[in-house]
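Hi everyone, sorry if this is the wrong subforum. Our group has a chain we'd like a structural model of before ordering constructs, and none of us has done structure prediction before. Sequence below.
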Amino acid sequence: MGRGPSIEGRKNAEDAKRAKVFTKLIREITVATRAGVADPASNARLRAAIDKALSANMTRDTIDRAVKRGSGADGGAHMEELRYEGYGPSGIALIIDCFTDNPVRTVADVRNALTKHGGNLGTSGSVAFQFTRCGELVFATNGDEAAEEKILEAALEAGADDVVNEHGESAVLCAPDHFEAVQQALIDAGLSAVHAGVVMRPNNRVEASGEALETLHILLDKLDALDDVSEVSHNALLPAEAAE
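Answer:
Right subforum, don't worry. Here is the predicted structure as tokens:
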């Protein structure tokens, strides 16, 4: 009878996963600082990146060092923000956002992941038209009409553009510039989002199934595992969502 992974083995795996998350967050803070100013009170993007890092239990010292790098110290000034567009299996549209200090390495890694898993790298603008950049706050409502109504009222009062109820969730949508104000208003209303951020939201979703679905999951995992990749947006309708 085989033995499962040891406690030490599990801890090492968890530590490695945590380190990878921290690497991505540090790069995000660095680039956000470089794109604006080092003061989060005057840099909404930096403020959001720091909030995300704190939610992941990153220490203030680590955050401060990342901000310092983004200000030009410690080699942080040469970090770049890049976006790649392409397709996965079954024509699933992909937008792959990256932070990197070596674009040649990054595009090679992204292209390799795509071509090995039923996809291909496209040109700039080839899939972006299928997405809309917006603020999105997602709440788990599980079909609770009272909860959906409370979220709708609070969202409209906060100046949100729309609320979409689907797959057991309520998604509050707003213009990117209004995201922070809408988020704070919903927090003040006692509502806690399971996910919140400025995202590339697909205008329509494409259902994936069978072998294509399995390959898509592998591809998304491979892209997420790349240190330079910060976020992957796609327009796939996954089985759990389709079953709703």
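For your construct planning: The first helix runs from residue 7 to 35. The domain at 7-77 is CATH 1.10.10.200 (Arc Repressor Mutant, subunit A).
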